[in-house]
Design a protein that fits this description.
heterodimer; A: alpha/beta; Rossmann fold; Alpha-Beta Plaits; 2 domains; 6-stranded mixed β-sheet; 4-stranded antiparallel β-sheet; 40% helix; 26% strand; B: mainly alpha; 0% strand
């Protein structure tokens, strides 16, 4: 609604983005598209370049090479226009501790050129919305971690941004507070805000994002829909619950001995009374069921599951880590040192 | 409806007008003043520094240094009060540096930098508030000074000395801003500032006349900009030759600004 002339489709478009710090390549040719009104998760370990990406997209950092536009504005050539359409919530809550929650929001409202009256009503509105009305007049220094993040989100929303960056929004929060922040983010997404979310947590990406870009060492190592990514890694997990829990171990041993399971082998989940069997193909699946029938094991339930995001991520990172171009320079370097 | 229309119109405007600059600076000044309300102890240094320094120097060293000035404690009061006045600008500069550093470390600066405001607004706001603090400190210094016997004879000269101290402080501010951007935390900025300023302050004519110092130190004090500043302030406030020291101070101010302002701005722009 803020920008009708925006080219339909991409709210954020990144092409060949490179950022070098001396020898270090924080970003090494990143391509990325975030469709309007969706949540793009950027998943990667510490030092993958996630924060560098967000900082470039919020004009805090100039790129070494490549192009990036947000809502049609170029990060290098149109920084001022771009700043009007973005909201940024950093890794740590970037709010002023010495001011009250209300003063923080009012300040940002004024800096965004809202008239006094509008800045006031907008601050009240957002505090209400993020359940901070009671704490509105207290200095932020007295807020809990979750309250600070909520205030930080509220501060990012004052200018009604078209694109919101959430840079590891729940890092360092306890699970309950994390859920609170997730709920708020989901509500914002429901309002049609485009979100670029960086995270180290698979669960977070799964909860919030519809699409995912996996980065490692400044490079995109995979991207696509979450389901798509899981399928790419291949394999499903077959969850078998025998009627008799005593059958768990023998069942797992039999399947392992037959060698028809996937690479990882079976896992016994005693807590839920199930055997987890990784399978790579429909043939394997059929073979497992055949074995069960032949052995005459009574089954109370059986289901297939896609692998968790954790598994997807580890397997993708694993591929990238063992890629030869990464291994060679490291070895050469070691040799050089040894000689 | 009309409010939304205004917002949309402002969004379309890409230039930051002078009025917008003033509005942004005003909002940020308000923020820095709210800090003081929230944390009144932050004003302690501005209030206590002039009291403690004046009493300490006048009553501890005043008698003996005064003798070398051809008088007693009274003579020293006339000597030290303008000297301390010269130091006011420095604490202002230091305050701006540490304040900036804190904003960077808490992430607040990231938020400001991602907003469509002129980046100078943050700086101007901080300077304005530190100027207010300097004004308060200077007033207290003069009140305490008068109480221990300082004669204010040249009112215009007094204001000129305050202005000169502020000018020199503004130049020094670029040094502290650079430190504020480069150093890891506010404590290091303060410690570093202390390390640099301490020898400069005492190796000058601020506290004692250099005539009794060894030759090498006298040479140092002669070229020390703080000596020029202190002597200029003295000339302006109690009379005596002014021109040379005044020009020296202004020359130093311009020189420091010319060298350090580009450095500070570059460091600020490229801070990651």
């Amino acid at each position: 609604m803020t920008r009708n002339d925006m080219e339909s489709g991409s709210a954020v478009s990144v092409r060949g983005l490179v950022k070098h710090y001396g020898e270090t390549k924080a970003l090494d040719g990143v391509d990325l598209d975030v469709r309007e009104g969706t949540v793009m998760g950027v998943l990667g370990p510490n030092g993958a370049g996630k924060t560098t990406l967000v900082r470039i997209l919020s004009t805090l950092l100039p790129p070494t090479a490549g192009q990036a536009t947000v809502a049609g504005y170029d990060v290098v050539r149109q920084p001022r226009q771009l700043r009007r359409v973005i909201g940024l919530t950093g890794q740590y809550a970037s709010v002023d501790e010495k001011l009250s929650g209300w003063e923080n929001l009012y300040l940002i409202g004024r800096l965004l050129d809202l008239p006094r009256k509008e800045a006031r009503t907008r601050s009240d509105e957002l505090l209400e919305r993020f359940s901070l009305t009671e704490a509105a007049r207290r200095p932020v220094a007295t807020y809990s971690g979750g309250m600070r993040r909520r205030l930080d989100l509220a501060a990012s929303m004052i200018g009604r941004p078209a694109v919101l960056y959430l840079d590891e929004p729940t890092t360092g929060l306890d699970p309950r507070t994390r859920n609170e922040v997730w709920d708020e983010v989901k509500r914002l997404v429901g309002d049609g805000v485009t979100v670029l979310l960086t995270t180290q947590y698979m669960e977070e990406a799964e909860q919030l994002a519809s699409e995912l870009t996996v980065v490692d060492r400044g490079k995109v190592i995979a991207s696509g829909g979450i389901e798509q990514l899981k399928a790419k890694v291949g394999g499903r997990t077959l969850r078998i619950r025998p009627a008799d829990p005593l059958q768990l171990r023998p069942l797992a041993d039999t399947l392992d001995a037959q060698g028809i399971t996937g690479l990882a082998g079976t896992v016994v989940d005693h807590e839920r009374g199930a055997v987890l069997v990784p399978v790579l193909s429909d043939e394997q699946l059929t073979a497992v069921v055949g074995t069960l029938t032949a052995r005459g094991v009574t089954i109370s339930s059986i289901s297939t599951e896609l692998p968790s995001l954790d598994e997807v991520f580890l397997s993708l990172i694993g591929h990238s880590a063992s890629a030869p171009q990464d291994a060679v320079p490291a070895e050469t370097h070691e040799e050089a040192v040894a000689v | 409806m009309s409010a939304t229309a205004v917002t949309t119109e402002l969004r379309a405007d890409t230039r930051i007008t002078l009025r917008a600059h003033i509005r942004h600076t005003g909002a940020l000044v308000r923020r820095n003043l709210l800090w003081i309300r929230q944390d009144p102890e932050s004003m302690f240094d501005a209030v206590l520094f002039p009291i403690v320094f004046t009493l300490l120097f006048v009553y501890v060293f005043g008698g003996s240094i005064g003798q070398s000035l051809g008088g007693g404690q009274d003579a020293y009061v006339q000597y030290i009060v303008p000297g301390l006045m010269a130091m006011m600008g420095m604490s202002m500069a230091q305050g701006v540096g540490t304040g900036f550093n804190q904003d960077f470390n808490t992430g607040v600066m990231d938020r400001f930098r991602s907003l469509p405001i002129g980046r100078g607004s943050v700086l101007f706001a901080k300077i304005s508030v530190e100027m207010v603090r300097m004004l308060i400190a200077t007033t207290i210094l003069l009140v305490v000074g008068v109480l221990v016997g300082f004669d204010i004879t040249h009112w215009p000269g007094l204001f000129a000395a305050m202005g000169l101290s502020a000018v020199f402080g503004s130049a020094l501010m670029w040094v502290f801003l650079t430190l504020g951007v480069v150093m890891k935390n506010a404590q290091s900025v303060q410690a570093m500032g202390f390390l640099v300023l301490m020898p400069l302050q005492f190796g000058s004519s601020i506290f004692a006349p250099p005539q009794s110092m060894p030759g090498w130190l006298q040479n140092f004090t002669e070229y020390n900009p703080l000596s020029a500043l202190a002597d200029a302030a003295r000339g302006l406030m109690v009379g005596g030759p002014v021109a040379h020291d005044l020009w020296m101070t202004l020359a130093w101010s311009v020189g420091i600004t010319a060298v350090m302002a580009p450095v500070a701005i570059h460091k600020f722009r490229t801070k990651t």
